[in-house]
Amino acid sequence: DSGVTQTPKHLITATGQRVTLRCSPRSGDLSVYWYQQSLDQGLQFLIQYYNGEERAKGNILERFSAQQFPDLHSELNLSSLELGDSALYFCASSLGGRGMDTQYFGPGTRLTVL
Amino acid sequence: AQSVAQPEDQVNVAEGNPLTVKCTYSVSGNPYLFWYVQYPNRGLQVLLKYITGDNLVKGSYGFEAEFNKSQTSFHLKKPSALVSDSALYFCAVRDIGGATNKLIFGTGTLLAVQP
User: Is A53 exposed, middle or buried (0-12, 13-18, 19+ CB in 10 A)?
Assistant: First the structure.
């Protein structure tokens, strides 16, 4: 157990809908990252937050957004969902925002868009 | 641009035999390198990481990896494979000089250890 928690574990929804994925980092970690894992794209970095502020953006669609709250938990919002958004979404956390810190991954949320 | 290559989609090895999972990387500066393992329906667990210093890095569950700067490689090894080592293995790199902490992952190598 990495100490990173993600809810829900599974999510099934329809095209055009909006969902929110939640992540709680390890105790003491200030940085949160979101990754998408799909069969065709592999593991792709989406976005990073550090102590409440956006630090870096990766291959994140405009339909997707995220935030990190004062208690350091983070939410990833996915809207106008398409079939191709079906994937495993991971949250990871690290102590700091740069450098050699190890990223610890949560168990993931499996999103299925029908 | 940073990139990681894992040339083998799958590696098959008999239990008790040594195993190697290959990884090469490309970064503009010096790298931080990681190996993660993913078991079915589970998240990624870090096995080991190379930051600096000794080129041979020892990690969890008896795994080790050797950093080779001239060949830009970071192959994962274990002297004696176990059936329980069967999983998906990812190599990842972070550019030390990069502005972010994001990891670039390889495509993954499925390790199958036969009893």
Answer: exposed
pLDDT tens string for chain A (114 positions)? Answer: 889 999 999 999 999 999 999 999 999 999 999 999 998 888 999 999 999 999 888 889 999 999 999 999 999 999 999 999 999 999 999 998 666 789 999 999 999 999
Q: How far apart are CA B63 and CA A11, in angstroms?
A: 35
Q: Which residues of B touch A (CB under 8 A)?
A: 32, 34, 36, 42-46, 49, 51, 90, 99-108
Q: Give yes or no for a contact between B99 and B12, defined as CB atoms under 8 angstroms apart.
A: no
On the question of a cis peptide bond just before residue A8, with omega within 30 degrees of 0, the verdict is: yes
What's the whole-number average pLDDT of chain B?
92
**Which pLDDT band holds residue B92 (cuts at 50, 70, 90)?**
very high
**Confidence (pLDDT) at B94:** 85
Q: In Å, how far are A105, B13, B80 from A112, measured between CA atoms?
A: 20, 34, 39
Q: CA of B84, closest CA in chain A: separation in Å?
A: 17
A98 to chain B, any CB pair closer than 8 A? The answer is yes
Burial B9-48, CB ≥16 within 10 A → b, else e: eebebeeeeebebbbbbebeeebbbbbbbbeeeebbbbbb
